[in-house]
Amino acid sequence: MDNFGAMRNTETAIIPKGTVINGNIAIEGKLEMYGVVNGDINSASRVNVSGDITGNIKANDLYAKDSFIVGQIECAQGATIRDNTVILGDIRAENLVVDGAIQGKIDIREGITVGEGAILDSDIKAKTIQVNNGAAINGHCSLCYADIKLEDIFPVTEETVEEPPKEETKEPEPAEEDKPKAVAKPKAIAKPKAVKKPDAES
Questions:
Q1: Helix/strand/coil (H, E, C) string of 122-177?
Q2: How many CA atoms lie within 13 A of 22 on its CB side?
Q3: What residues does 81 pair with on adjacent strands?
Q4: Distance between CA 80 and CA 49 in Å, rounded?
Q5: How far is CA 183 from CA 186, 189, 190, in A?
Q6: Rounded CA gap, 76 and 10, in Å?
Q7: Are the CB atoms for 69 and 53 separated by under 8 Å?
Q8: Which of 41, 102, 132, 139 could form a disulfide with 123 if both were Cys (CB 3.0 to 4.6 A apart)?
Q9: DSSP-assigned letters across all residues of the chain
């Protein structure tokens, strides 16, 4: 089943524990989910989850407790991730309160409150972030939505680049064949020894 369309006109839909739905769910009202859904959930209202979801969630706001969710989450308002909840996927929302575990990118336009039991393996983008003692965060935090401009506080200075020391250029040594060959000195000519004159006859 591609779409659980019967829920469209229901004010509050309840998926009880033990129920497995293989297909997407679209609802204009509130959804209470205690079973298992293998598919996307799209709600114009609130989605309460205490079960397992493999699929993306798009809602006005989300409340998850005692749940396991694999997929992307997008909320027009806030998302609340309580204890004993694991989310493998990115989260986009206006506000976020988290006491569970999240592995994925977190993009929050306003504020994040990270509880003492939270475990975040995430890169975080937000306007403000409050981290309680005991929380564990592994990732990069950027307050990119804050009203503060860092360049107004920390003046940007031009970095002076030091020129590397000039190396002394040495003239290349001439090749062996171009080097002047040493002229051998002539060997000294041995002087003739003096010949002893014969004694005159007496």
A1: CCEECCEEEECCCCEEECCEECCCCCCCHHHHCCCCCCCCCCCCCCCCCCCCCCCC
A2: 1
A3: 64, 98
A4: 10
A5: 9, 18, 21
A6: 21
A7: yes
A8: 139
A9: --B-GGGTT-SEEEE-TT-EEESBEEESSEEEE-SEEES-EEESSEEEE-SEEES-EEESEEEE-S-EEES-EEESSEEEE-SS-EEES-EEESEEEE-SEEES-EEESSEEEE-TT-EEES-EE-SEEEE-TT-EEES-EE-TT-S--HHHHS---PPPPPPPPPPPPPPPPPPTTTSPPPPPPPPPPPPPPPPPPPPPP-
Give the whole-angstrom CA distance, residue 86 versus residue 78: 17
| Buried-state track 71-91, b at ≥16 Cβ within 10 A, e below 16 | bbbbbeebbbbbeebbbebbb
| Residue 23 contacts residue 6 (beta carbons within 8 Å) | no
Angstrom distance (rounded) from CA 167 to CA 66: 68
Average pLDDT, the chain: 85
157-181 residue pLDDT tens: 766 556 666 666 666 666 666 555 6
Tokens of 7: 């829920």
Confidence at residue 6, expressed as pLDDT on a 0 to 100 scale: 45
Please say whether the dihedral angle defined by the alpha carbons of residues 76, 80, 85 and 89, taken in this order, is positive or negative: positive
Structure confidence by residue, pLDDT tens digits, 77-112: 999 999 999 999 999 999 999 999 999 999 999 999
Please give the radius of gyration of the chain, using alpha carbons only, rounded to the nearest integer.
42
